[in-house]
C-alpha cells in the first residue's frame, strides 16, 4: 500500500501544473500536494521579504495554499498556476500588513491625553513583526521625542523613561502639577501628529535623523 502511494506521488511530481490543477478540479485532492511542494519555498520567500518574520511568513504561507486549494475549483487557468498563486500570496501579505497598520493606528488613536494615564506606545506596543518591528518603532519614537520643545522633552522623559509620578516631576522642576500635565498633553499631541504618517506607511515630514 505504501509503495503504491509513493509511486503515485512520484507520478504526480512529474506532471505539468495544468494537468495537476485539472486533476484537483476533478476530485483528485492528492494532486495538490506536488503543487505545494513545488512552490512553497518560493511563496515563503516572497512573503518573508514583506513581513520580515519567519513565523509570520510560515503562517501566511499556509494560508496562501489553503486559500488556493479552496479557490482552485474556480481557477480557469487563464494564467499560469504560479502567477495565480503569486497574486494570492501578495494579497495575503497586503491584507496582513493592513491589519497590523490598523492595530498600530488604533493604539495611537487611543493615546491618552490625561497625563496620569499610561502611554501605550512606549509601555506595551504589540509588535506585529516581533523584535525588528518593535525596535524600529521605538527608534522612531526616540527621534520624535527629540523634536519636542526642551520643556516637553524633559517632562516626557521623567514621566515615561524615569517612571516618575506627576507630583514628583513637579517638585523636581519647581513647577505646578497643572503645568506638568499641560506639557505632557502637548507632548502627546505633538508626537501623535509626527508619528501618524509612519503608522500609515507614509514618509515622515520631519527630519527623523536629528
Task: Give a structural overview.
By secondary structure, the chain is mainly alpha-helical. It has 2 domains: 2-100, RNA polymerase sigma factor, region 2, helix turn helix motif (Rna Polymerase Sigma Factor, Chain: A), CATH 1.10.1740; 110-199, Orthogonal Bundle (Arc Repressor Mutant, subunit A). 71% of the residues lie in helices and 0% in strands. It contains 10 helices and no strands. The chain has helices spanning 2-13, 17-25, 33-51, 54-71, 81-109, 120-123, 130-145, 150-160, 166-173, 177-199. The chain is rod-shaped, with a radius of gyration of 26 Å. The protein starts with a helix and ends in an 11-residue tail after the last helix. 19% of the residues are buried.
Look at the structure and give the CATH class of the largest domain.
Mainly Alpha
Question: What is the CA-CA span between the terminal residues?
Answer: 69 Å
Output the helix-strand order: HHHHHHHHHH
Q: Which descriptor suits the 3D outline? A: rod-shaped
Count of β-strands: 0
Helix content: over 70%
Estimate the mean pLDDT confidence: 78
- Tell me about the biggest sheet? none
Could you say what the CATH topology of the largest domain is called? Rna Polymerase Sigma Factor, Chain: A
Poorly predicted sequence stretches spanning 5 or more consecutive residues? 109-132
CATH architectural group of the largest domain: Orthogonal Bundle
Structural class: mainly alpha
Note the topology.
Blueprint: H1 2-13, H2 17-25, H3 33-51, H4 54-71, H5 81-109, H6 120-123, H7 130-145, H8 150-160, H9 166-173, H10 177-199
Helix pairs in contact: 3-4, 3-5, 4-5, 7-10, 8-10, 9-10
Amino acid at each position: 500500500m505504501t509503495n503504491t502511494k509513493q509511486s503515485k506521488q512520484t507520478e504526480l511530481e512529474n506532471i505539468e501544473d495544468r494537468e495537476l490543477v485539472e486533476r484537483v478540479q476533478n476530485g483528485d485532492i492528492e494532486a495538490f500536494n506536488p503543487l505545494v511542494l513545488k512552490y512553497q519555498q518560493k511563496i515563503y520567500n516572497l512573503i518573508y521579504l514583506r513581513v520580515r518574520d519567519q513565523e509570520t511568513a510560515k503562517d501566511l504561507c499556509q494560508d496562501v495554499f489553503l486559500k488556493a486549494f479552496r479557490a482552485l475549483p474556480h481557477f480557469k487557468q487563464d494564467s499560469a498556476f504560479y502567477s495565480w498563486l503569486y497574486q494570492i500570496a501578495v494579497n495575503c501579505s497586503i491584507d496582513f500588513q493592513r491589519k497590523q497598520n490598523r492595530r498600530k493606528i488604533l493604539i495611537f488613536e487611543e493615546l491618552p491625553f490625561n497625563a496620569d494615564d499610561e502611554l501605550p506606545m512606549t509601555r506595551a506596543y504589540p509588535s506585529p513583526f516581533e523584535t525588528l518591528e518593535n525596535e524600529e518603532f521605538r527608534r522612531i519614537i526616540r527621534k520624535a521625542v527629540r523634536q519636542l520643545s526642551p520643556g516637553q522633552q524633559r517632562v516626557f522623559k521623567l514621566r515615561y523613561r524615569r517612571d516618575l509620578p506627576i507630583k514628583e516631576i513637579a517638585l523636581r522642576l519647581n513647577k505646578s502639577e497643572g503645568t506638568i500635565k499641560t506639557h505632557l498633553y502637548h507632548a502627546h499631541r505633538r508626537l501623535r501628529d509626527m508619528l501618524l504618517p509612519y503608522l500609515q506607511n507614509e514618509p515622515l515630514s520631519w527630519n527623523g535623523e536629528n
